[in-house]
Amino acid sequence: MKTTGIVMAGLLSLTMAGGAAAAQGGQQSIPDAPRPQTLPTLNTVTPVGQALPAAPASQASSAADDKAAEAQAVKENGGVEPTSKLPTGATKEKMTDDDDQGPPPPPPPGGVSSIVVHVNFVSVPVTVKDSKGKLYPGLTWRDFRIFENGVRKNITYWSSDPFPISVALVVDQSVDFQTMEKVNTSLHALQGAFTPYDEMAVYTYNNGVTEQTTFTAAQSQRLAVVLDRSKTAGRDQVWYGSGPLAQTTYKNGFDVDPNTSPSHSAAGNSTIYPEKEFHTLNDAILTAAAALAKTPSNRRRVLFVISDGKEYGSKSKEKDVIKFLQAHSIGVYATLVGDSSVPGMGFLDRIHLPLTMRDNVLPRYAAATGGQCDPEFRPKGIEASFAKISEEVRSQYTLGYYSNESVLDGKYRTVEVRVLRPNLEIITKKGYYPTASASSITPPSSKTPTP
Q1: Torsion angle, CA of 318/323/328/330, rounded to 10 degrees?
Q2: Measured CA distances, 368 to 54, 242, 371, 397 (Å)
Q3: Residues 334-379: pLDDT tens digits?
Q4: pTM to 2 decimals?
Q5: Per the domain annotation, does 68 fall within a domain?
Q6: β-strands 300-307, 165-172: how paired?
Q7: Are 339 and 301 contained in the same domain?
């Protein structure tokens, strides 16, 4: 019995061990869950933090070229990089090898080898146009070269930003009544061509100069009233009381047939001669320029003339007026009206006869001071010329350099500006006089209208 019990216990234990082994075999047949995938180790790539995308190779090379060109331009400019801040007065600058100033003076005691000289700052506004006459933007100081008396100067100041404008307006009241009517119609559009930061003084002239107002805000109500007061009837056209165009036949100043004379009186026939014309344009420009010379130097000085350009009867000479304009950096701009606005009508001035009226002197003023003339015949064209001239003044480039010439010598200095790009028109002043040399030129006294 005991033996049978032992055998049964052994069999039972064997059966349980086999079931456990079977259970273990069943668990091994179940597949494992998917394991997370990891990136393989790459020996050629080093993980880095987040960074900006690299610039293309072409842009990188272009930036390097620009930097190299800038460095080369600074080197050619005497090592001077232009600034956009105007100097407040006369300063000092080191002499360079390009300045032809003769042998330098001996160095001061103490072993100091630097040499400095007193110089004066010269500002040169420049207008650049393309072959179609349109303003050419986008130039930098590296595109310009400036020469004084044929010697290249270092550009120390550069700006393409617009300046506030001080305008001295000169209106010709000696034109005929038809032209004056067109000018009167167009004057209302003048204020719209300027900004609230600009200022304007108004002068009129016929047989003498009249100051209508001193400098006032360009868009003020006061200026609107002054412009309206500056309107006039103009000059009547010449009526020939004698001569070949008269209503009768004259010989040696007397009527051949008194019965056909256009005028009769109890004392006999009288000869009527036209009134003598006066066009004191030179005096008007000099009077307006004297007021502009007192405005701050950080404003653009513009003398704006509305006239046919005829000159007769002025006390001031043209060469003296131009000298004053060039000494005080004043540019003359003009809207030509009347006969001068018609192409081909101004050719008689080239063969000017002594003691006779000059047909049009304004182109010479504009060329000498870096300004421009805009001929307009219709009232709408006259109105458009105001905005056109204002735009050209605001779109100028401004170059500045230091002249090593003495301000007391009184000599004329030529100025030449070149642009390193083809097919461009450069409009700037031809030269200037030191301010001290023009101090003896005084304008004639002007009349002030009663309010």
Answers
A1: 40
A2: 53, 41, 8, 18
A3: 999 988 777 654 444 444 445 445 578 999 999 999 999 998 888 8
A4: 0.71
A5: no
A6: parallel
A7: yes
